[in-house]
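Researcher: I'm comparing several assemblies side by side, and this is the next one on my list. It has 274 residues spread over two chains. Same procedure as the others: predict the full complex and return the structure.
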Amino acid sequence: MAKSAEEVVRNYCALWERQDVEAVVKAMTPDCIYQNVPVPAMHGRDEVRAFISKLLLTASKVEFVVHGLATAADGKTVYTERTDIFSLGDKKMEAPVMGVFVVRDGLIHEWRDYCDIATLVTQMKKLGFTPGTEIPS
Amino acid sequence: MAKSAEEVVRNYCALWERQDVEAVVKAMTPDCIYQNVPVPAMHGRDEVRAFISKLLLTASKVEFVVHGLATAADGKTVYTERTDIFSLGDKKMEAPVMGVFVVRDGLIHEWRDYCDIATLVTQMKKLGFTPGTEIPS
């Protein structure tokens, strides 16, 4: 039986926590659209890979804490409220975020995250990331 | 029959669009918690009224465009993806936002909105609002 959209999203978050870049990318459709609103969207797996690689490969631990989620009546759109935590040794970036995922054929097709970008950038700097290389603007 | 959580949230957004401050406040529980994450939360109707009054009374038009929404399995938590638009004559503030509402006894008990605060502040300035009076920090 096909996985529910909720299962697809939970599995996708688990791939982030495993820090498996290729698995994360392949869990998205080839024509995926990923946006940290209001930063312009990334299109396709290559742009996503370029954006997530350094972050995922450098972090010593990644956690997507899902506080709650709900699937829309269309059965394919999943809303989440999360805290995304990226650790680098004893330094931590904690981003309170809401995200909406649209699932197609068992893959993530659209993903829009909403959070306070300044909070994200400030915290990324603590981890030694340079905004502008990780966050396209 | 009691309204569904989705109906409560849609009605609540409609009250914002009617710019009816007292109706908005009374549609929330006396011990409501309203937060523009990561700005500290407001507690209770008086704090909410103080926060929303100038904005609602000054704007010439208010629109909460709901792009999509979903109710969690608990039947009381509603996730929304919206664009909130506040107009003042020909000036517009458009905030892309996700928000989660928790309904209790037909009233909004918790409301957390997630958006890029810098976008919000920049756009509020265009409308002549001074950040710090409208957004507690």
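Model: For your comparison table: Residues 132-137 of chain B have pLDDT under 50 and may be disordered.
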